């Protein structure tokens, strides 16, 4: 509404200002006749504020086919010859939750390694964070806790905070990083600063707090208050020794009250305003919830941030009296966790229905000021991030009866409309199966062996893997090649295990090597920038060279080797099992696989074709395959 052009349209009564005035982060997308001299008609996007306008722009982008995940998941943007829209006015309204964001946590080694490879830095700089900020904004979020294991958002790159402000992202610091200071800022100078102990080192810690507040004074940053122990432990505890901690709750509560008073005094002195004028949040996490239950309180203007149990089940919600707290309530939710009793940081183990139910419950109890999601190193949490952010905007859009419509819409956006139903079914089952027990908690006693329970569970995963592979083979090339091209171009040396099923051996002489079970392949990039080269080594056989073109297409460099081996990769995140090759397979072939029991849980086999061949070659190439490749089309292994 601050734009001169928008004000002129309002003055000319071509935009209804009442639809935006006084609103929070709302956009209006409308078709306007003669908005400017020489312009007959235009699509106008106006926002009640900066983020409202941004959301309107990204909404248009999404409507014309750009997924919010186009960057982080390599979702292709399909070319369109024509675009059209019905005349009228469109808006998504206002968000139900004021602060909506993600927490990059447990980011090493995957995310830190990717950043080092991509940007050459040992920390996340403004280039990296700009990409994360764009994702948050495309999902209509506005808030972030930055990565903090080994990085310092504020200290590593002065442009980080500036970039957040320019792009419209409100920054905060995690539940144990008070006063806009990153924990690494203390860790790196621990020998100079001394102990992270307010009882014995108050003067130094207060100065540390003040410096953080001075740096954040002119930003929108949401200030975390309170304090925990050094390294995300209870006050008085030691990092990694939660099981040895002896509670001293009453002593810590008295100390916390003193910390609250001094932090708010520093906020007042630095900003020159009453502390209630600067938004603050207190995280009621782990042992701090016990302090709250014992009577510890913050001033009325402070957001009180509750949490789940680190595994997706909400621990506590405010009762009717507590909901009168004027500062409001928030929820800190996890789809990734590092800590006692066991980590959960490898796979997405959050059932869709459980997350929806817990967030619905959260919102129904008036928790609508701040929702923050611990997403680990971002991948592979794309779907729960999307569900979380969409629910933070409109938690009542989906109910138990239509919840999977959201999952289907997500899959249609990432894989195409034709693939949406099957992708939805697979994703739903994947989340269901993983939600039974995390990989980190799985042990010999989880599933009963003698009763056949273990076999049933293992077979369900094998079946789901085959179904996922079958769908992958059916995807349009655009949905697979973009990701593979990026993976190939950025590949570090890896070992890829190749399993060849006996029932899929080929009698074709040029493909005879594919009958060797248990082969191994070593892929090593060469130094040539225009084409990365890899060597394919068989156990006990000679090597053949393959070249990867700049477009990402892996091709045999020798004319004598026209087919790739059936193979499956076990080395994330490159997943080079199917690098932009044309795939020859059938659903009947996949569904009829007879996998040896010893390999069933870890084996996937499939065939690739590398090019066209003549009718004569096709006729002689694969006489034992079933079904046969059509003559005149392709040479292939079975």
Number of helices: 19
Mean pLDDT: 80
| Contiguous runs where pLDDT drops below 50 for at least 5 residues | 486-638
Main sheet overview: 8 strands, parallel
**Fraction of helical residues:** 25-40%
Task: Count the E strands.
Answer: 18
Q: Into which percentage range does the β-strand content fall?
A: 5-15%
Radius of gyration using CA atoms only: 28 Å
Strands side by side in the biggest sheet: 6-5-4-11-10-9-8-7
Q: Which secondary-structure class do the elements indicate?
A: alpha/beta
End-to-end distance: 63 Å
Morphology call: globular
What does this structure look like?
- This protein has 638 residues and is of the alpha/beta class.
- It contains 19 helices and 18 strands.
- It has helices at 4-11, 50-63, 110-119, 126-138, 153-156, 159-167, 183-187, 190-193, 202-216, 249-271, 287-293, 352-364, 382-393, 403-415, 420-434, 453-474, 477-489, 587-591, 615-621; strands spanning 27-33, 41-47, 89-90, 99-103, 143-145, 170-171, 223-225, 280-283, 303-307, 329-334, 370-374, 494-497, 520-523, 532-536, 544-548, 554-556, 582-583, 608-609.
- The strands form 5 sheets. It has an 8-stranded parallel sheet, with helices on one face. A 3-stranded antiparallel sheet has the order 2-1-3, with helices on one face.
- Strand 8 (280-283), helix 11 (287-293) and strand 9 form a beta-alpha-beta unit.
- The N and C termini lie far apart (63 Å).
In a nutshell, what does this entry contain?
This protein is globular. The protein has 19 helices and 18 strands.
């Amino acid at each position: 509404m601050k734009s001169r052009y928008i004000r002129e349209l309002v003055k000319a009564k071509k935009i209804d200002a009442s639809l935006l005035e006084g609103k929070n982060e709302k956009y209006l997308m409308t078709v306007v006749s003669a908005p400017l001299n020489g312009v007959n008609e235009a699509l106008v996007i106006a926002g009640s504020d900066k983020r409202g306008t941004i959301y309107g722009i990204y909404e248009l982008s999404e409507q014309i086919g750009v997924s919010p995940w186009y960057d982080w998941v390599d979702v292709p943007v399909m070319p369109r010859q024509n675009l059209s829209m019905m005349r009228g006015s469109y808006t998504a309204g206002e968000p139900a939750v004021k602060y909506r964001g993600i927490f990059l946590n447990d980011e090493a080694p995957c995310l830190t390694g990717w950043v080092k490879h991509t940007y050459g830095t040992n920390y996340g700089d403004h280039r990296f964070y700009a990409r994360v900020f764009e994702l948050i904004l495309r999902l209509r979020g506005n808030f972030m806790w930055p990565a903090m294991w080994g990085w310092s958002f504020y200290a590593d790159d002065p442009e980080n905070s500036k970039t957040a402000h320019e792009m419209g992202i409100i920054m905060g610091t995690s539940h144990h990083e008070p006063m806009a200071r990153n924990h690494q800022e203390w860790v790196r100078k621990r020998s100079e600063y001394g102990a992270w102990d307010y009882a014995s080192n108050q003067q130094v810690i207060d100065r540390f707090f003040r410096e953080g507040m001075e740096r954040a004074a002119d930003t929108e940053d949401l200030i975390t208050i309170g304090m925990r122990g050094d390294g995300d432990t209870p006050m008085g505890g030691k990092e990694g020794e939660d099981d040895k901690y002896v509670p001293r709750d009453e002593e810590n509560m008295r100390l916390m009250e003193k910390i609250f008073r001094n932090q708010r005094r520093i906020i007042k002195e630095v900003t020159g305003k009453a502390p209630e004028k600067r938004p603050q949040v207190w995280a009621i996490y782990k042992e701090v919830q016990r302090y709250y239950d014992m009577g510890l309180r913050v001033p009325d203007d402070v957001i009180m941030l509750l949490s789940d149990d680190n595994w997706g089940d909400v621990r506590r919600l405010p009762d009717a009296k507590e909901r009168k707290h004027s500062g409001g309530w928030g929820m800190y939710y996890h789809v990734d966790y590092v800590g006692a009793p066991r980590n959960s940081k490898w796979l997405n183990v959050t059932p869709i229905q459980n997350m929806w139910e817990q967030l619905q419950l959260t919102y129904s109890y008036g928790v609508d000021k701040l929702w923050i999601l611990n997403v680990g190193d971002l991948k592979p949490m794309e779907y729960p991030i999307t569900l979380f952010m969409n629910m933070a905007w409109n938690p009542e859009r989906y109910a138990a009866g239509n919840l999977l419509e959201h999952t289907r819409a997500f899959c249609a956006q990432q894989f195409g409309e034709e693939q949406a139903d099957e992708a939805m079914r697979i994703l739903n089952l994947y989340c269901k199966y993983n939600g039974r027990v995390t990989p980190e908690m799985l042990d010999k006693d989880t599933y009963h062996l003698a009763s056949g329970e273990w076999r049933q569970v293992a077979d369900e995963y094998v079946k789901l893997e085959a179904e996922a592979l079958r769908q992958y083979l059916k995807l349009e090339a655009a949905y697979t090649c973009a990701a593979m091209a990026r993976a190939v171009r950025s590949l570090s040396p890896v070992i890829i295990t190749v399993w060849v099923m006996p029932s899929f051996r080929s009698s074709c002489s040029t493909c005879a090597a594919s009958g060797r079970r248990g082969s191994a392949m070593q892929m090593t990039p060469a130094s040539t920038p225009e084409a990365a080269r890899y060597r394919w080594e068989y156990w006990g056989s000679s090597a053949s060279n393959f070249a990867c073109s700049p477009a990402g297409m892996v091709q045999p460099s020798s004319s004598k080797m026209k087919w790739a081996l059936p193979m499956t990769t076990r080395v994330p995140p490159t997943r080079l099992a199917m690098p932009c090759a044309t795939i020859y397979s059938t659903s009947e072939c996949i569904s009829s696989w007879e996998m040896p029991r010893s390999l069933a849980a870890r084996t996937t086999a499939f065939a690739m074709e590398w090019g066209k061949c003549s009718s004569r070659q096709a006729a002689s190439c694969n006489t034992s395959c079933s079904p046969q490749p059509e003559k005149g089309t392709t040479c292939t292994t079975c």
